[in-house]
Amino acid sequence: MNKTKLSPDLINPLSRQERKLYPYKRMDMHSLQATKIIKGERDDYRVIGNRGDKVADFFTTYAVFNGEFEEVTDRQTVLELHELTVYLSLDFYIEGLQNAFAAYDTGEEDSKTTTDLVTHPISELNITHLSNLWHTYKSLKTCAEIPIEDARAVRSQFLTFWEGYKERYQDIQLLPRTPLNEENKQFGIEKMYLESLVYKLSEWVNDEIDKTISIPDLIRLNGETLHESDIQFKNDSLSKLEKGNVFLINYLRKFMYCFYLPLAVIVFIVRFNVMVFAFPLVYFFGLKQSLAMLVPGYRAKLKKGFIASHKQNHSLVKSVSHETAHASSTRKGMDPFNFQLTYKNFGTGTLYTSLMFFGISIWLFFTQPLFLPFLISFILGIILLILSFILPRLNVSKMTVAFNRGEITMTRLSTVYSEQIGKLSVDRKKNLFKITIGSAQGMERAFAFKDADQLKQALGKIKRWADAENVNLEIL
Fold it and tell me: The pTM is what?
């Protein structure tokens, strides 16, 4: 193998010149990226296309180009190169499965690899095949160019591992995903990586794909549906305002780190003016997180429009799904339902705002000889403090929370898409239901059930919804 040092990533952004030569559109919230050179028997190839910015993302759309940057049109060659690219991109998930297998080896009773629901154990052969595959991935990390024989060897090794693992994969995928903190928790790591892989391979293809579809079938389906020539997406799912927000999210961070912060430090040293750090404080402690929470919702909206643009491929999706042992065109537990709940954040948000006004009034009292602004700020703080206790008891805090396919809608609040949810939690002692947006430590929307009976009625439905939507659920 060629051991010339290069970026360890298989896929990297295109150069500016190559972006101009690429004949297809760049999608919103994507960048144009390309694989390392794959050296074929007759020519050099690269798979190029739209790709998200996350480490584990695959190509959303793709095309294949030769060494002269001419598009390859031979269908068989195109499909094989895309397939090989996906197999070469599985290293993140292979490492994750290795970690999952290692987690069982703790010597504790609950570390066993089988139960009544998961009947196929992890064999020594599974572990050996997975280890061999991971060593092959590591050896390719330092290659500047990847010979096509090496790429085919990776595919062959994965299929060898898959042959011995596919029955256990079916068992794991059929487990209820949530709440893993109650039962089957020993399978949590393994299930997390498998679900993530299936989700990433299917998210831009179809949102009805059976979660037990085999990985090789899903990789093949990916290649057959996402070629640029098969996509008629107009890239108009996001409004101008939403596209502006996406631009702001992408470039405000660069502006902050590359321009404003260095300039602020220089001004502070020269003038000793701490106010130059006011904008960075607003950015890091408020604006940055608020903007970041918009991203999953925009991505979900973009995805809906994209999938609708290649509806003609849905018959192909169904035909591949039906080849699996547990094919299904609908997802369990997806009938919409709703509850009347009390929104707790009105009081919390008002309380925090009142504390902010109290802080401003204290600052004005000690630093500025202006009595009127101090008095106004102090009075506003008192009014908001009183409202923080009154609002949760008023009808304005009563909301209908509706669980629909792919989203949760709330009266007078913006829709939360499944992808935005870091975690749902139900506290049976306090009769609370919480939606955590973003990461598991992100912003919370908290609701109170009327009583324990309403919570008990809701819990089963919320469990089924979370399982169908692949959303984490914590029950306390």
Answer: 0.72
